[in-house]
């Protein structure tokens, strides 16, 4: 049967404890009675039974304590004692191991006693087991009654215990063992091993008894019962030592029943000891007079030893009386001195208590938070000001370590606090931390942490904390006003100068490249007229609108600031591509010019002139900002709405790219673009079925092919208006051809920006309605890459086009981007095989097989397949053999003007166009 984790409370618990006490007394009385039962000369029943009963009881005690230890640990039966530093399960475990060691020693003694008499001249195996039980007992006892904290206090406790043990042993020697050794005569020196048990017991008792007075309230009953059991066992060891020295058992072997009683008390410990409610957290003034228990025990032992030694010395015939009198009086003087030290200590304690009383009063009336923390950051004391400062209850603060309230990012700053325990410096540690308040907000605090030392107490930390959230908020507001613009809320010129300087300095120190750092200056063209006509208040409102537009175009790697007046500046970090910075500048210009600004009741259109400058190795922030300002000035000189790059350091390609985009914009406005058409023929009949519109640019008398300017138009966003012009121009021409009874279709390529434009579908519908071209005649071609990069949005836009009746085709099919899922989702009408497949047709077996597979896939899906790039007759023959219906290329027909298409088709079909 397992003992319970804790004895039940209430009347039933008290009855159970009384029953156990009665059972123990009955067993003890019955065992004592065996000392009166004679069996032989100088022997009794108790002496003959020897250590067998007590060894059995020791084994029962060990099992009982170990089982109870596991039960207590599993059920958590003693949370109150753990709060006071005690550990009940561990205490029971070590006490159980000590009982098992006594059991092993007793069984060894009893077994060897069956075959030979126990020698008093040496230690036997049983003696070693029994002596090993004492350290285990000490460890278990100190888990119920923890050691006093701090090295200094522990050292004082050990020295006082040694003095007490020496005095007690002197008394026991003179009163008990000295007469016995005198009777033994000269051979008594060989019997010294008989005193091992009494000496060990006296040392352990003097070490542990003072801890009884220092034990937590929650374990006090257990401590008293355990120390009582040890005293009983020590008494048995004393009687056993006398028996070893004299031979005949003392009082018929009474030491065996006494030992049985002590071990029985240990066995019954889990049954008889109930847990008290844990004491409230103690004040920081200490634990009271019992802190001096070791000193008091030492003084008492010395006093008794002095009297005994003096009387014993006076009775010696060969010692002059003056010598013991001198020794005794010297010890008495020493006692007086010790008493004086105790009085001084008591005076100092009263001073400490008064100081702590003043401390508590100050803590109660202070607006700061005052804490006393244990080494593990748990709270030992907290002032009442905490509730007002942070909104917590005192119980909430005591429940968890204060590190749980500190912001995770600030925990690193608390590491110097641990050095206070090792360095023991009188200088405190000053910390600024963010602390969680009860309402979930983070409060900024300023704390001073110092070492807090109390006599007889472990070292702790004294923390004084002040809430400085209002001060920090004021500092942040001042900093914000210093580095931010009041009109737009953006960082101002001072912030940009400091930020640019920090970025360049950091990269110079870390030897990082600076080619990813750039500055864009932007000036609102015509803003002065707004201020003059509408007033500065409305002008400030317009600046706020412009700031919001510009901020919407920037990501986290760019810092938008207001440079002053109508000028803005952007610091760009982390991009290694100069073209991206130029593209960003153009986007900023477009977002300013895209929509009118609302000023009072008027819509005002503005443009922006922009200058771009890039950082170079060794360049400081002032030079970088000046270069950007110069570039912006040059842009304004060239005309409103332009972008200028500070070209002293730029690659020639970047400058030419920027110039190309500018020329494209000018060409679109001047009408320098024109269309050519490449026929698509039926490979079976060689009849032209449709034409693909291709844009060309007449730049200063030179025809610029699309591959030289389409990319720039795409990047700058100019492709959207350019694509709209291409679509309208081509639809008008094909509509005219169809009016002339020529059944011909039209194909137009689309860019990603066109498809993703919010007005694209309505633009296509408007062009069809304007030109009168039937929707089913128009085929819009998109690249496979569009379906991969912007799949969902692109599919949605293209699906709307299909709702208009427009045909869809995937251009350059086979390059690995599109999938069958897109073909099914879009329900495309045509796929155009990429020219790279046609170029290797007949030369590469794999390409030939893939081309045949694409053609077969189109036929199976009912989709028209068009082969692009047919330039050799053998390619045409193979495509016809594979079943490809349509094709285009230089072999079939080159791109040509509208007149050329009319002549070609007119000759084929005999139609007078």
Automatic annotation (TrEMBL):
Limits of the PAS domain: 355-425
Domain (EAL): residue spans on this chain: 657-909
InterPro entries (alphabetical): Biofilm_reg_signaling, EAL_dom, EAL_sf, GGDEF_dom, Nucleotide_cyclase, PAS, PAS-like_dom_sf, PAS_fold_3
Name under which the protein is recorded: EAL domain-containing protein
Segments crossing the lipid bilayer: 19-40, 52-73, 94-115, 121-141, 162-181, 187-213, 222-245, 257-275, 296-316, 322-342
KW Transmembrane (keyword) present: yes
Positions of the GGDEF domain: 515-648
Taxonomic placement: Bacteria, Bacillati, Actinomycetota, Actinomycetes, Streptosporangiales
Entry keyword annotation includes Lipoprotein: no
Key words of the record: Membrane, Transmembrane, Transmembrane helix
Residue stretches in coiled coil: none
Record's signal peptide: none
Annotated organism of origin: Nocardiopsis coralli
């Amino acid at each position: 049967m397992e003992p319970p984790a804790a004895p039940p409370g209430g009347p039933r618990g008290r009855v159970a404890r009384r029953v156990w006490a009665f059972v123990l007394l009955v067993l003890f009385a019955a065992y004592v009675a065996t000392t009166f039962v004679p069996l032989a000369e100088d022997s009794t029943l108790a002496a003959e039974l020897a250590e067998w009963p007590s060894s059995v009881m020791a084994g029962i005690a060990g099992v009982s304590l170990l089982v109870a230890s596991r039960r207590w640990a599993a059920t958590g039966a003693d949370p109150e004692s753990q709060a006071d530093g005690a550990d009940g399960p561990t205490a029971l475990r070590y006490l159980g191991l000590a009982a098992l060691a006594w059991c092993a020693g007793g069984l060894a003694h009893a077994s060897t006693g069956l075959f030979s008499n126990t020698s008093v001249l040496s230690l036997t195996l049983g003696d070693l087991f029994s002596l090993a039980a004492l350290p285990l007992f000490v460890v278990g006892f100190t888990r119920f009654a923890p050691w006093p904290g701090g090295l200094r206090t522990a050292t004082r406790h050990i020295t006082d215990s040694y003095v007490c043990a020496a005095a007690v042993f002197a008394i026991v020697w003179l009163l008990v063992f000295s007469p016995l050794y005198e009777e033994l005569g000269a051979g008594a020196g060989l019997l010294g091993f008989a005193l091992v048990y009494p000496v060990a017991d006296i040392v352990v008792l003097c070490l542990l008894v003072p801890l009884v007075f220092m034990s937590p309230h929650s374990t006090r009953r257990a401590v008293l019962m355990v120390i009582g059991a040890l005293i009983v066992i020590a008494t048995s060891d004393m009687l056993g030592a006398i028996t070893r020295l004299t031979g005949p058992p003392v009082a018929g072997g009474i030491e065996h029943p006494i030992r049985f009683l002590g071990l029985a008390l240990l066995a019954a410990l889990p049954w008889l000891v109930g847990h008290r409610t844990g004491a409230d957290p103690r004040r920081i003034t200490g634990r009271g007079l019992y802190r001096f228990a070791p000193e008091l025990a030492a003084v008492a032992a010395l006093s008794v030893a002095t009297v005994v030694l003096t009387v014993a010395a006076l009775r010696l015939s060969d010692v002059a009386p003056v010598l013991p009198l001198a020794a005794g009086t010297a010890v008495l003087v020493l006692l007086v001195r010790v008493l004086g030290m105790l009085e001084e200590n008591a005076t100092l304690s009263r001073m400490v208590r008064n100081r702590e009383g003043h401390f508590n009063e100050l803590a109660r009336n202070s607006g700061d938070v005052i804490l006393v923390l244990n080494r593990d950051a748990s709270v030992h004391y907290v002032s009442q000001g905490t509730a007002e400062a942070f909104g917590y209850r005192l119980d909430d603060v005591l429940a968890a370590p204060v590190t749980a309230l500190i912001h995770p990012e600030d925990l690193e700053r608390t590491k110097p606090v641990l050095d206070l325990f090792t360095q023991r410096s009188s200088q405190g540690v000053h910390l600024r931390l963010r602390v969680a308040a009860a309402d979930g907000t983070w409060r900024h605090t300023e704390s001073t942490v110092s070492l807090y030392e109390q006599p007889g107490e472990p070292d702790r930390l004294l923390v004084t904390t002040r809430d400085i959230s209002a001060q920090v908020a004021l500092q942040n507001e001042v900093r914000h006003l210093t580095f931010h613009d009041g009109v737009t809320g953006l960082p101002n010129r001072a912030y940009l100068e400091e930020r640019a300087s920090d970025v360049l300095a950091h990269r110079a120190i870390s030897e990082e490249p600076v080619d990813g750092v750039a500055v864009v200056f932007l000036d609102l063209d015509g803003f002065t007229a707004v201020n003059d006509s509408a007033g500065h208040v409305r002008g400030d409102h317009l600046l706020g609108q412009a700031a919001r537009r510009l901020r919407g175009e920037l990501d986290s790697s760019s810092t938008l600031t207001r440079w002053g007046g109508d000028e803005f500046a952007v610091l760009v970090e982390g991009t290694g591509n100069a073209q991206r910075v130029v593209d960003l500048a153009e986007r900023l210009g477009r977002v300013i010019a895209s929509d009118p600004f609302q000023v009072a009741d008027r819509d005002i259109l503005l443009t922006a002139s922009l200058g771009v400058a890039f950082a170079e190795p060794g360049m400081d922030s002032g030079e970088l900002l000046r270069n950007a300002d110069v570039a912006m000035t040059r842009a304004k000189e060239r005309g409103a709405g332009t972008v200028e790059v500070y070209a002293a350091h730029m690659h020639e390609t970047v400058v030419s790219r920027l110039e190309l985009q500018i020329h494209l914009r000018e060409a679109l406005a001047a009408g320098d673009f024109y269309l050519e058409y490449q026929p698509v023929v039926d490979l079976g009949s060689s009849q032209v079925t449709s034409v693909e519109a291709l844009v060309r640019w007449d730049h200063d008398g030179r025809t610029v092919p699309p591959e030289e300017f389409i990319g720039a138009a795409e990047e700058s966003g100019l492709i959207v208006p350019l694509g709209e012009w291409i679509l309208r121009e081509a639809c008008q021409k094909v509509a005219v051809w169809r009016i002339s009874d020529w059944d011909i279709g039209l194909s137009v390529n689309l860019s990603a920006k066109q498809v993703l434009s919010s007005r694209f579908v309505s633009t296509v519908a408007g062009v069809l309605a304007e030109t009168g071209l039937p929707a089913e005649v128009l085929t819009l071609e998109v690249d496979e890459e569009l379906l991969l990069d912007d799949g969902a949005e692109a599919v949605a836009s293209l699906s709307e086009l299909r709702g208009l009746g427009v045909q869809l085709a995937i251009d350059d099919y086979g390059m690995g981007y599109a999938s069958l899922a897109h073909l099914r989702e879009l329900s495309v009408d045509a796929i155009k095989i990429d020219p790279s497949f046609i170029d290797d047709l007949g030369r590469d077996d794999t390409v030939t097989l893939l081309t045949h597979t694409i053609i077969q896939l189109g036929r199976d899906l009912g989709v028209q397949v068009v082969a692009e790039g047919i330039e050799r007759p053998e390619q045409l023959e193979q495509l016809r053999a594979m079943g490809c219906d349509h094709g285009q290329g230089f072999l079939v027909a080159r791109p040509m003007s509208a007149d050329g298409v009319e002549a070609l088709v007119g000759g084929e079909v005999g139609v007078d166009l």
